[in-house]
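Reading a protein record of the kind used here takes only a little practice. The record below shows the convention in full.

——
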Amino acid sequence: MIGSISLSAPDFTFHNGYCRALRVCILALLILLGGCANLSDITGAHFTDLFSGDEDEVEIDEAELAELQTLAPIKLLWQVKLSESKTAVFLPVYDNGALYAADEDGRLIKLDPATGREIWRVDTKSQLSGGVGTGGGMILLGTYKGEVLAFDEAGNALWQSQVPSEILSPPQTDNGIVVVRTGDSRLYGLNAADGKQIWSYQGVTPPLTVRSFVGVSITRGAIFAGFPGGKLIALDLFTGNVGWEATVSQPHGVTELERMTDISSLPIVDENQVCAVAYRGRAACFEISNGNQIWARDASSSAGMVMDNSHVYISEEHGTVAAYDKSSGAAVWKRGKLGSRKLSALMVARGTRLIVGDDQGYVTLISRQDGSLLSRAPTDGSAISSRAEYLPDGFVVQTHKGGLFAFSLQ
């Protein structure tokens, strides 16, 4: 049944609008062991990372690394150490003049964003798997046991709620509703005052999916979420009713492995359109009011995309960053040779720059105008899987080893 979504300022109404033999053997074994549920992530990376040595994988040569070493360094402001993350991906968040970060061992900390000085620390006594989300004076976390934990800005516990399965992304809140996405791609709307469940949504899930740490995007009373099978869904924030459903990418191929085309990154939204990109699929933009397609083009990304006033930028597979015209999808520029074949999500920085991290622990600044490399800095050598986060004087990233590194953009 199709519901409706009313958005304020302005108002909108939503409506319906082979692989090699070894791979097949591994896939069959995993399905026999796990049934038709979402496959567990054995190594802590995406399921597809189990299959290394793809025919189209390109080695990083010495000339590429030598060129990167000539880039100007990015100034480090401060660094803080949390615990190593075995499987979870955490995103530090700047909100209301403070920086919040968490780790898998259950620590939540509040920091001075200018100096990295710790203001307070809370031991949640839980194994955290999703965070940090903020909004409405709350700091929100998720656990492997499906617990949603809410704290105030002083670190006091507000409430705890329970959903049926693990939470792999930061809970989000807007207009008195906390939206939680679980590892099986279900969505839950909770009352922000007490954590009680208001609504739930479950879409159709293919037999085989990528283990994803993606959450949801919320704007003006609507939730936008990408799902396995290449679907983009718009839901009403207050009721969970579906406003429209659009197809970003259609599954292709014979085996379930070949047919994986999951949206494993956040949709991006502006005043007029919402865009998403699928792993092994396409990138596409749709009218925000009704889900009608504006443009689509072949692209593949598990990290995701960002946009500015003119362009959409995608962290594509095999270490490539590409820019496309936001209104037409026309290619503008493409840049590889970033020293890694697995990039993080991008961040649009002040001026004309993009920030990207990689699985070698480097952060790189790229020109939004032509894709040229501007500057680069190391962290602790471990992967940066989540996007950089804004700070008043620069940006901060969190590594898999638990390092928080703040850099200047001056």
